[in-house]
Write a structure and sequence with these properties.
9-stranded mixed beta sheet; Aminopeptidase i, Domain 2; 6-stranded antiparallel beta sheet; Aminopeptidase; alpha/beta
Length: 466
């Protein structure tokens, strides 16, 4: 922004940062890329986050009797939701500073009874999770990650398709020579959801056992699971296995300024939110990072943002902070709190410029994106930040030298989306969405700007410390 022109203009962040800061950008993103590649499911992300927290001296909330300024605690819900806090200098009744994000990403899940045989191949039947373009998930190498819980409660962890010598899995598509009818369909109908079946085997079981019937290939897969993982066919009923892209995280472009990988939405905000809390030193207000599941399907269930887990953990913190705890204390604390809802925005793409309002779009390399509202069409389903809170946030970021931009999600009536901001706002706290811009959001391989990732981290750190 020039001295004579006080109008808003998003800046190219690379031109605003010193060389030393640029080095830190690449270092930070290398660590983020490694974490992202190693943690492609909510359970893995939670486990990796707990490891980082414990290394920095955070204790499980149930292991402490009382809390005071400087204490660091965390709580985990069903290995898929995580809340961590650093107790601030101000009294808890002054409110919390919260960064909240979601760890789940669009993917493909297994059906409850997935294994079957047809046409000389064994398959896992699937059900997609979240808003995907189904045609993007065929004919690419896929990995199988998650766990299986046996009847006696034993947990068997599964990760197949990521190592160089691992097999991968595959969803087929029809060849163009026979695809005339497919080409005539709308893009959304070209791949039927019921056809997103994962190829898992093709060699039949070499025995004469009549119990196996004609499904010799299916039986061979079951035998393999029994031999390799001590899993039987019925154990798949209590499995939490996810089908994710087998590709790793890679730099994009000659200058390596972009980072490609699966799950930037929204693990980029989850990671930067976690790192910001780990680096928070003597916060004025109690600093809290909330990482949740199920955002991509409405934040429902025990591990989504609509679960009572969040307020239950805040209640535990309150009861260990005050000798005399009451429900009124909890409500007062939440109402005086404020939050950055960590979620990504759609990066302007000149190949599809017709769906963006260029003056109100998010751009790669222009810093963290403040999204005042989301929703669809007439702002339906959105939580809109107040003018007062927008002023407070931009003042904080400007004073700290954080590079930011403002945007909405596409042109009016082109579509839209939602975030967990609305559920935080239900506590009557101020909240605004903040996160980096993402190219090809919800695809198997998304792209972010490294400098945007770093400024997102700086934004969260600034907010939590003040």
């Amino acid at each position: 922004m020039s001295k004579t022109d006080k109008s808003y203009e998003a800046k190219n962040a690379w031109l605003e940062m010193e060389d030393v800061e640029k080095e830190e950008v690449f270092k930070f993103n290398k660590e983020y890329g490694t974490f992202l590649e190693e943690n492609k499911t909510e359970r893995e992300f939670t486990s990796g986050s707990v490891e980082m927290l414990e290394q920095e001296g955070f204790k499980r909330i149930d292991e402490v009797d009382s809390l005071q300024a400087g204490d660091k605690v965390f709580a985990v819900n069903r290995d898929r939701q995580l809340i961590a806090a650093v107790i601030g200098e101000k009294d808890l009744k002054e409110g919390l500073r919260i960064v909240a994000a979601h760890m789940d990403s669009p993917r493909i899940d297994l059906k409850p009874n997935p294994l079957y045989e047809d046409g000389g191949l064994a398959y896992f039947g699937t059900h997609y999770y979240g808003g995907i373009k189904k045609f993007q998930w065929v004919t690419i190498p896929l990995a199988l990650r998650g766990l299986v819980i046996k009847e006696d409660g034993t947990k068997i962890e599964i990760s197949i398709g990521e190592k160089e010598d691992d097999p991968v899995f595959y969803i087929s598509d029809i060849l163009p020579h026979l695809g005339k009818k497919q080409r005539e369909k709308k893009m959304s109908e070209a791949i039927n959801a019921q056809h997103l079946n994962l190829i898992v085997g093709s060699i039949p079981l070499d025995d004469e056992d009549e119990e196996n019937g004609n499904d010799k290939i299916k039986s061979a897969v079951i035998k393999h699971l029994e031999n390799e993982y001590d899993i039987n066919g019925e154990d798949l009923v209590s499995a939490d296995l996810q089908i994710v892209p087998a590709a790793g995280v890679r730099d994009v472009g000659f200058d390596r300024a972009l980072l490609g990988g699966y799950g930037h939405d929204d693990r980029v905000c989850s990671y930067t939110g976690l790192k910001a809390l780990l680096d928070t030193n003597q916060p004025e207000y109690t600093a809290v990072t909330v990482l949740v599941d199920k955002e991509e399907i409405g934040s429902m269930g025990t591990t989504g943002m609509q679960s009572r887990f969040f307020e239950n953990v805040v209640a535990k913190i309150t009861s260990k902070y005050y000798k005399d705890y009451s429900e009124l204390d909890l409500r007062e604390i939440l109402e005086k709190s404020s939050s950055l809802s960590g979620d990504v925005n759609a990066a302007y793409d000149s190949n599809f410029s017709e769906v963006f309002d260029k003056r109100n779009a998010a751009f790669i390399n222009k810093g963290v994106v403040l999204t005042k509202y989301t929703g669809a069409r007439g702002k339906a389903g959105s939580s809109e930040a107040t003018a007062e809170f927008m002023a407070q946030v931009r003042s904080l970021l400007n004073k700290a030298g954080v590079i930011w931009q403002v945007a909405e999600l596409g042109k009016v009536d082109e579509g839209g989306g939602g975030t967990i901001a609305q559920f935080l706002a239900n506590y009557n706290m101020d909240v605004v969405d903040a996160g980096p811009a993402v190219l090809a959001m919800h695809s198997p391989y998304e792209v972010v700007g490294k400098i945007d990732v770093y400024n997102t981290y700086l934004a969260y750190l600034t907010f939590l410390e003040n």
